[in-house]
Amino acid sequence: MNKLLIVGTVAFDAIETPFGKTDKILGGAGTYIGLSASHFNLKSAIVSVVGDDFPQEYLDLLKAKNIDISGLEVVQGGKTFFWSGRYHNDLNSRDTLDTQLNVLADFQPKVPADFKNADVVMLGNLHPLVQSSVLDQMETQPKLVVLDTMNFWMDCALPELLDVIKRVDVITINDEEARQLSGEYSLVKAAAKIHEMGPKYVVIKKGEHGALLFNSDKVFFAPALPLEEVFDPTGAGDTFAGGFAGFITQSENISFDNMKNAIIYGSNLASFCVEKFGTERMEKLQKEEVSARLRQFKALTQFDIALEN
Amino acid sequence: MNKLLIVGTVAFDAIETPFGKTDKILGGAGTYIGLSASHFNLKSAIVSVVGDDFPQEYLDLLKAKNIDISGLEVVQGGKTFFWSGRYHNDLNSRDTLDTQLNVLADFQPKVPADFKNADVVMLGNLHPLVQSSVLDQMETQPKLVVLDTMNFWMDCALPELLDVIKRVDVITINDEEARQLSGEYSLVKAAAKIHEMGPKYVVIKKGEHGALLFNSDKVFFAPALPLEEVFDPTGAGDTFAGGFAGFITQSENISFDNMKNAIIYGSNLASFCVEKFGTERMEKLQKEEVSARLRQFKALTQFDIALEN
């Protein structure tokens, strides 16, 4: 089985949406990526850090999903990273109510020996120096390195972010972040500028409006599945990235055509994530549900126009 | 050849975008629909009204596109409908600077005798009473009636709008209008409520984010082509509707699968419309350009995932 190395936060979230609110629940980019990638036939490990307040049941959950957590450091006497946010009525924007870095402030990632030759590395949203450090520890060149980031690092650690962006094959960011990073409003132009920063593949996530995959002059688009209810968007982008990286890891194929499939799988998995609070839907998601929804994605997008020659 | 009857404004527009501004140029929903539908093998007619200030060269342009203008009334001593607007920097929103109804205020549409048995009727954005009057004049039941409208009529003439919506097969509106008309935020729920108002098919236009086609429990999505530059969005929605109605008219096929193709053709033609000011791009658009871009749409959206059984 191929190996996927994941770095990303494992955290507590407290979420408010127009439909309700949660106490501290399981969250973090690494968690969502790991749960999503667990739908593929691969070996995965999460590199992250938590405090000793992190419940054993959450660790057990990750292990039950066949995720190697030997690189998930537990800091004795430390507190787990905590994020709290409130979504607006349209669920497209949110206010951060509280961020407590806690053990994340001094996090030194340690890649498990068995994953220093991982086939694919998924660098989830974290400080770019942490992302770079993970790449530094690899003993063989991964077939594909995927990086996810956000506007926070563009504001606070741009030089470090640009350094790590140079080293990756694929970057996944949302539309506003692509515009901020490139200084271009047109997403076509933004992708072209981000190509020049290093990544051969640029994935622009547009939330409910789908995702675009750019590779020099080629472009592919995957819609989001139109849903009756979006309950909680938390983790949707990470779930998308985890599905993308997981599918690539399993298939061992980094052609553009296969990346199209990876984007569809990512969108498919993300469409489940938003149906319940936090990780609830992803924890119980069954293979049959994923397959059935994949058929919906086909019906949603495939057409058959005879093209004149 | 099958017949397409178009009702919609033929007008003067004055447009400001971040890229420049125009004096009074050719505009109007009927104009854009007619130019778009002229790319198909069909007979079309526009029912509309202008004043005697409307230049002969614009009438000649419509005739040169094989559009029957015997139902385009020229009011002697009257002035043509005029709209002026300014787009914001993101081109997604605009302010109306001036609206002069002029001859449109007392418009009584007259369907040419030769088009009272049209196969398809495209009711462009106009007062719902005008749209109803056109349907009243039909001597045979059209195979398909398509209606486009906007929030203005929801605010000012809702009962009349609901009356005409009852009588049509397809409604095309944008996402915000679908939400306003239905009172539902989720577009899936909005489409379901609009189905109950009459139309079997609900097309929700999302501008740069593509378009959704709903038919009871079936849904199809066509993206907008990612463009380097969007120059002027004026008329894009009408061009989309004209492409949709034109394709259906030519193909004589109102199955859901064929409507998917119609949505793709509409998106394809709209992608050209926005590349220049006003009707400029559509006036000179060649068949070969349309075919080439259709191939881009296929590449943009088609994928080949093996689905498990």
Automatic annotation (TrEMBL), chains A, B:
An MF annotation (GO) of this entry: kinase activity
Superkingdom of the organism of origin: Bacteria
One Gene Ontology CC term in the entry: cytosol
InterPro entries listed in its UniProt record: Carboh/pur_kinase_PfkB_CS, PfkB_dom, Ribokinase-like
One Pfam family cited in the UniProt record for this chain: PfkB
Keywords: Kinase, Transferase
Span of domain Carbohydrate kinase PfkB: 20-281
Gene3D superfamilies: 3.40.1190.20
PANTHER family to which the protein is assigned, alphabetical: RIBOKINASE, SUGAR KINASE
Protein name, per record: Sugar kinase
Organism of origin: Flavobacterium enshiense DK69
